[in-house]
Structures are given as structure tokens and as C-alpha cells.
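User: Here's a chain of 414 residues. Predict its fold as C-alpha cells.
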Amino acid sequence: MTSLNAVVIIIRLIISIFVQRLLAVTLGEAGIAKIGQLRNLVQMLTSTSSLGIFNGIVKYVSENENDTKQLSKLFSSAFLFGAIGSIISGVVLFFNADYISVRLFGDAAFVNLIKCLSLLPPVIGLNRILYGLINGLSDYKKHAKIELGAYILSVVLLLIFLYYFNLKGVLFAIILSPLISFVVVLFIFFDKLKAHIKLQELSADFSFAKPLLAFTLMSFISTVLLNYIELDVRTTITDRINIEEAGYWTAMNFISKNYMVFSSSIFTLYVIPKFAKINTGSAFKKEVLYIYKTLLPLFGLGMLLVYVFRHLIIDIIYPNFEGLSELFKWQLLGDFVRLATLVISYQFLAKKMVWSFVITELISLGLFYGLSKYYVDIYGAEGVVMAHLYRYIIYFIIVIIAVWYYFKRNKKHV
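Assistant: Prediction complete.
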């Protein structure tokens, strides 16, 4: 599973670097900023179209893989959530297309793009439900094929639309990518889908609705709220400084997300299963210190190399993005503290500490939003990455306190 995941990530990374360079050269900082705005909106839709139940489907499919009755109840609830989320998302987008176009792109020239996107929530929602089934069944080979196949087809469409229609073509290609992904899922996974989702057995039994609501809440915070804040911060940079600075910050985010995906995947595979088995504060502390001594120095070294070779990285991916190099120091420091925090915060997922997750995430996002708004006036786009670092230093302390309290409450002292 790890090797397959690594192969897909590396291939995607190579293709993505090529595509990002082409977009940067062709569309410039302003184009990169507008692409970032739309990607954030699509990410929000990915959650709202299914009411954020993806992780819940993964969990309950893995627990009830061979129980057809329970699966029928699960998908009865899942399709209800998907229908509600898709209708609400589509209606909100369609009737607010003018406002959203101005909010995202600064003018009403992209109203038709938003109205086209408003037709896609049913596809996006259904796609997330099917992806939840695939992940829940742990069919990693097919999952890898779907991920890679859908990504390559989406890139081909993007390049064709870029050649013929420039920026608008790229934006339309982005909103069509969920449709491509849905077709690929059906093509590769159709037999398994038929075996596990029996439409004739779906009923009005929505007993899984309440358990799935917890995942809706977590998804709203981790996906919808996060992407809204990123979108709003980018708009703030554009309004208070200029769209070029917004493009620099978007480019920095792209670089960060690409090196963070390696660390996040390793932590998910290793840390959560480990923490799930730990029930004492002393054992938890010992495991955290072990991870800090073994994995964290490797990531620290990798980030140091990214900083040392930052000018080369900029020349390869974002040539002529002159203001980008100033953001690396703060972003890398913030990401390192973020990794240290992630190790401990995975305890929330391992022990299903829903409210601890929700409250700490809200504090984290609130800190980033407030600090970004404050520092952007003083330091420009650099102020946003400074806010990124300061936010995670404070968040790190809060997470330690929350986990310490968890063990103290259970009379197991760290």
C-alpha cells in the first residue's frame, strides 16, 4: 500500500510541477491566484456536496464489509446526505453566481463558470460516496489506478483548454475534473460497486444518519472552513496589496502542500494505529518522543534542503515570481511546527476525541485568520506566512494541554 501510494504521489508530483510551470509562465501571478480561488471553492464543494461524510463511509464500510444489511442502511443514509448536500450546494451557487464571481475573481466575467459549477454537486457528492466505499474496502490497487487515471485525464483536459481558451479554459477544466474522476471510478470499479451497493435494497432506514453527523461536523471545520479562510485571505491580499502578491502566496501554498503530503501520509499510516493501542500517558509520551527522535529530524533535513535550494525550486516551477523567495523561511518553519503538532493531534483521531478535535481546530483556524488579517497590512503576503508560523506555535501548546487533560481525566497522567 505504501509503495503504491508513493508511486502515485511521485508521478502526480512530477506532472504537477510541469503543469504549474506552464501555468505560471502562461498566466502569471494573477492567473495562479485565480486558479487558487477556484480550487478552494471546488474543495469546499467536495465536502458540502456529500455533507462531509467521506471518512464516516470509510469507517463503517471497513467495519461492515460483509454485512449487506448494514451496508444497505449505511448507503441509504449516505445517499440522503448526498441529495441534501448537493441540492443546497447547487442552489446556493446558482443563485449567488454574480456575487461569488466578484468575490473570487474581482469581476462578474466568470458568472457562467459558477453557474456551470452549480450543476455538478450531485456528481461531486456521489463521487465522494463511491470513493468512501473504495477506501473502506482497502482496495489499494484499484484506488491507485483511479487516482492516477483521473489525474492524468484531468491534466490532459486542462492543457487542451489552456491552449484554446487561456485562463477561462483552465478554470473550466478544473470544475470538470470531478466529472472525469466519476467516470473513471465507474469504469474501473463498477463490478465492486454493484456488489456492495444494491439499489433495490436501499430503504428509508436512516439509522446511520446520526453517527455520520459527527463526520459532517469535522469535515465542515477541516475542509469547508479551512478553504473558505484560504479563499478569503487570498482575496484580502488582492484587495489590500495586489493580485501578484496573492499569486506568490498561492504558489508557496502549492509547494508546501506537495512536500507535506509525504509526511502526512507516513504519519497517517504509522501514528494513528500506534496511538489507537496506547492507553497510558507515559506510553503516549514515550511514543511521541520516539517519533520526534526518528521521523522529525528527517523532515527537518528535507525542509532545510528546500530552503537552501529555494531559488532553484522557484526557477523550475515559478520562473519570474520574484517575491516568492521571501515566503519560504516562515512557511517552512510553520510547517515544521505543524508536523510536530500533527504527531500529538493524531491522538484526537486515534481515540475519537471529536470535541477536542473540533475546538482545537476552530482555535487554530481562528488564529490563522485573525493573525493573517493583522499582519497582511504590515508585511504583505509575507505577513500571512508569518501568521502561519505563529498560529502553529500557539496551536502546538493548546494540543499538548488538550491531550494532557485527556489522560488526566482518565486518571492516566503523562
